[in-house]
Design a protein that fits this description.
It holds the Pfam family Mitofilin. Helix content is about 80%, strand content about 0%. By secondary structure, it is an all-alpha fold. The protein is flat, with a radius of gyration of 55 Å.
Length: about 725
């Protein structure tokens, strides 16, 4: 009831303040608009004897009037001075809400009121008496208001802001020319255009910076990839050189060495192994070189695209990337030349080997034609007869003579062959030299281009630096001018604020009293509301605590009237619903209730005593089937498991909560014994944790007990959480 009454009074106070302020400004405007045609004399203030006789409600009316006046003055001064408004909001409760409700009906600032007031005296241009008559009339009215002995004391604070300050403001506004307003408008437009241009320039610079950053990241990644790929390709090509040289040396040694005939197979096996290693190295080198060339081509394409783009053409990462591209390409070309040279030598050696193999096969065929019965190379063959040896020696002599004749012919033709070989080699060398020359020329050209770009970049950097310094100097000069203009405006505003503050100092004492009255009224209202709210919360906390106690008792005792354990199950839906209603659907309570299983609400949970009484039977059956796994077993396994349960005694591993137990060391008997140990000591959670480690048939046997124990623990945990919440809420209402 008190809250409703105080709210109505506050609403009436706000409405009265709004009407008072609107009437105040409307009276000011109407007075100025009608000042021209009115006569000089002003109506005298109402005499004191015209006041109505005091009644019973006169004190309340005066108090209400003073309240309206104080609130209106407070709101007006807070509208004028933001610092005073901030002080009121910090010290007076609910004042910020009142200001937020009233200020939308008021102008945005004091300057806005002044800018609208000078537009009204334009009507006085048609006054034949001029502005002097109006000013004289206003001054006379002010003097009469100030010296009238019959005026009421309460009307003095209202007459001050309605007369003299308004006339002074009107005079000041009349003296202000119209042209500075236009210049200020043009200046604001120019300032807006400058801000818009600066914003667009900033956006353009951000876009350019983003493009350059993206190019730098791309170039860094490509340079790193090029370096890694090129180094890897060079290393693989070095392995190709080493494997090729090793293969050539082994091949030459196998062909030239005739001292140890029995080790020829091992030598040729080494040659074959070296050839395979060479082929593997060549394939790997081809793959890595191709990958390196592709990455270099990507880097080259990225550099060209960056140079074509006007935004990124002067990026600082382009020159280092070009240097890296030039160096890596040169190193790859040099290594490729060495590989090709080594490959040429290997090809010559292979041709020499083919000629030797061809001569050996020809000699073997000739011997087979002379002695068809003798198989050359067959160690198990028969020994040669004397005639066969003589025939072989004769053939060897004839072959030697034939070779001597061929040697003489070859010596005669060798000079011509050497000459042709020299010419071919010269052509090949010229071709290789041209290739090397072209590569070197390209490298030098790239280096020259890079150096040229460095020089151009340095020159452009110096020019940009000079332009930047010039812009900085101009910007600094413009900044100083802007600071001076801002400082001038601040000083003008400060002077005007001090002037009006001096005019309103006499009203501050009354405003202070009004603030005290409002604070006391709000304090009483807040105390009553707080007391009612605290009593309501205390009652809710008591109801919630009783409902939680009922839930805890239902979980702990179940249905005591039941004869069997199954009949002692008690659904908890009624208790949970009572808790939900008592808490007023509090989020914490609803979250806890939602976590309670549906089976607990509809069916109920086994009590701790029933679960403890049921455990020995579960333990006994689990011990008897300890050797049976998940898939079951034969009768023999069940019998052996039963015998084992008879001869094995209980062994407890963990007799303390802090004892660490290795799960792999636990078996069915130790788990059951430990669970029984903790169950006897009231540690129900530890017993359930241990029973949850069972495997196989014991797990199936104890599954129902474990499930019921989990439901009991979940329900008990929810009940404990709700009890803690109810206790905390009850303590909160006390303190």
């Amino acid at each position: 009831m008190w809250k409703t009454t105080s709210t109505g009074v506050s609403a009436r106070i706000r409405g009265g303040c709004c009407r008072k302020i609107k009437n105040y400004y409307g009276m000011r405007l109407s007075t100025e608009a009608q000042a021209g045609p009115q006569p000089k004399a002003s109506p005298p203030p109402p005499p004191k004897e015209d006041l109505p006789p005091p009644k019973k409600r006169g004190i309340f009316g005066k108090l209400l009037g003073l309240t309206f006046i104080g609130v209106g003055g407070t709101v007006g001064y807070a509208w004028y001075d933001p610092s005073f408004k901030k002080q009121i909001e910090d010290n007076v409760p609910y004042s910020k809400d009142a200001f937020d409700f009233l200020f939308p009906y008021l102008p945005e600032s004091f300057a806005a009121v002044k800018s609208r007031v000078p537009s009204l005296p334009s009507v006085s241009q048609y006054n034949p008496f001029g502005s002097e008559v109006q000013n004289t009339k206003e001054e006379g009215r002010w003097k009469r208001r100030e010296t009238s002995p019959d005026s009421e004391p309460e009307s003095i604070p209202l007459a001050l802001p309605e007369t003299k300050p308004k006339v002074a403001e009107t005079k000041k506004e009349k003296e202000v020319p119209i042209q500075p307003v236009k210049e200020e408008t043009v200046e604001e437009r120019r300032q807006r255009e400058r801000l818009e241009a600066a914003r667009k320039k900033k956006e353009r610079e951000e876009e350019e910076a983003a493009e350059n950053a993206a190019l730098e990241v791309n170039l860094e990644n490509l340079v790193l990839s090029c370096t890694n790929k090129s180094k890897q390709a060079i290393e693989v090509q070095n392995r190709v050189l080493e494997s090729t040289k090793s293969h050539v040396q082994l091949l030459k040694k196998a062909m030239d060495d005739t001292t140890n005939i029995l080790d020829k197979d091992a030598q040729w096996e080494a040659v074959a192994t070296a050839f395979e290693a060479r082929q593997d190295a060549v394939l790997a080198a081809h793959k890595d070189v191709t990958a390196a060339r592709e990455v270099l081509e990507k880097l080259k394409h990225t550099i060209e695209e960056g140079k074509k783009n006007k935004v990124t053409s002067k990026n600082k990462m382009i020159l280092p990337a070009k240097e890296t591209l030039n160096n890596m390409s040169s190193e790859l070309n040099k290594m490729q030349s060495q590989v090709e040279k080594t490959e040429g030598e290997a090809k010559v050696m292979l041709k020499y080997k083919d000629l030797i193999d061809k001569g050996r096969q020809q000699f073997k065929k000739e011997l087979e034609s002379i002695m068809p019965a003798v198989k050359l190379g067959d160690r198990k063959g028969m020994k040669l007869t004397e005639d066969e040896l003589n025939s072989m020696i004769a053939h060897a002599h004839r072959r030697i003579e034939q070779l001597q004749k061929q040697l003489a012919e070859q010596i005669a033709l060798e000079q011509q062959r050497v000459q042709r070989a020299l010419e071919d080699q010269q052509k090949e060398d010229e071709k290789i030299e041209k290739q090397h020359l072209a590569q070197e020329a390209e490298r030098l050209q790239n280096e020259f281009a890079i150096e040229k770009e460095k020089w151009v970049t340095q020159i452009q950097f110096e020019e940009d630096l000079r332009h930047h310094l010039a812009r900085q100097a101009a910007a600094h000069s413009e900044h100083l001018q802007e600071v001076l203009r801002v400082r001038e405006k601040e000083l003008e505003i400060q002077f005007e604020r001090v002037l009006h503050t001096k005019l309103l100092e006499e009203r501050s004492s009354f405003h202070t009293e009004m603030v005290g009255w409002i604070a006391r009224l709000k304090g009483i209202e807040a105390a009553v509301d707080g007391r009612a709210e605290s009593e309501k919360m205390a009652q809710q906390a008591q109801t919630l605590w009783l409902a939680c106690v009922a839930l805890n008792g239902a979980i702990r005792l179940g249905n005591p009237e039941g004869a069997k354990m199954e009949e002692q199950l008690r659904p908890l839906s009624n208790e949970v619903e009572a808790i939900s209603k008592a808490s007023g659907n509090h989020p914490f309570v609803m979250n806890v209730i939602e976590k309670i299983p549906e089976q607990v609400l509809t069916k109920g949970v086994w009590t701790e005593d029933n679960l403890r009484a049921r455990f020995p039977k579960v333990q006994k059956v689990c011990r008897r089937v300890s050797m049976v796994d998940e898939t079951g077993g034969s009768l023999l396994r069940y019998f052996l498991s039963y015998l084992q349960s008879v001869f094995i005694f209980d062994s407890i591993y963990a007799k303390c909560k802090d004892t660490e137990v290795d799960v792999d060391d636990l078996n069915t008997f130790s788990i059951l014994a430990s669970a029984k140990f903790w169950l006897e000591r009231g540690e129900f959670e530890n017993a359930v944790r241990l029973m949850n480690q069972l495997q196989g048939a014991p797990r199936r046997v104890a599954a129902d007990w474990i499930e019921e124990a989990k439901l009991y623990l979940e329900a008990r945990q929810a009940a404990m959480a709700l009890m803690a919440f109810a206790s905390a809420r009850g303590l909160g209402t006390i303190f």
